[in-house]
Design a protein that fits this description.
Length: 158
């Protein structure tokens, strides 16, 4: 790590994946500094951590990981969490805010929607890894404009 003219450490760029080596970081700080949709910061053989930033009224995207457990931690913002056993039946609906953790078992359809008016800042852990080491996505590659929060999704009211 380099130091600036005030002799304070300058955090490394967040586009670097520190996986497969020991690593300690301030997760709140690096998550708040991340402005990419997804940035992998640590990818190991059995676990991966990515930082995420979701714009208001956008979402992660409805998805399912058949063999991956996933954990989200909300650092800043308000999220609408949707989960279910089937793509068109997201019966589990909860609001998550700063400090809340979201546990998603493998095989569960899920989406996380930014329900606030500021960027939703969160990190997620995949076990095993879901994305290639060093992944940086500036925007959601699968994003399609969604209906406003509260409008029908999958045939049901939120």
């Amino acid at each position: 790590m380099t130091v600036n003219r005030f002799r304070r450490p300058v955090p490394p760029p967040m586009s670097h994946d520190f996986g497969k080596q020991p690593y300690v970081t301030d997760l709140n700080n690096v998550t708040m500094r991340n402005n990419n949709f997804r940035t992998a910061i640590w990818t190991g053989a059995n676990l991966q951590m990515t930082l995420m930033s979701i714009n208001p009224n956008q979402d992660v995207g409805l998805e399912v990981h058949s063999d991956v457990d996933q954990f989200f931690y909300i650092v800043n913002g308000v999220a609408l969490v949707l989960m279910g056993e089937e793509k068109n039946s997201l019966n589990y609906r909860r609001t998550a805010v700063n400090g809340n953790g979201i546990f998603i078992p493998a095989g569960t359809w899920h989406n996380v929607v930014n329900a606030g008016n500021v960027q939703l800042k969160m990190f997620t852990i995949y076990a095993p890894p879901e994305h290639p080491m060093g992944t940086v996505e500036h925007g959601n590659p699968g994003y399609a404009p969604r209906q406003a929060v509260g409008e029908p999704v999958g045939g049901e009211e939120i």
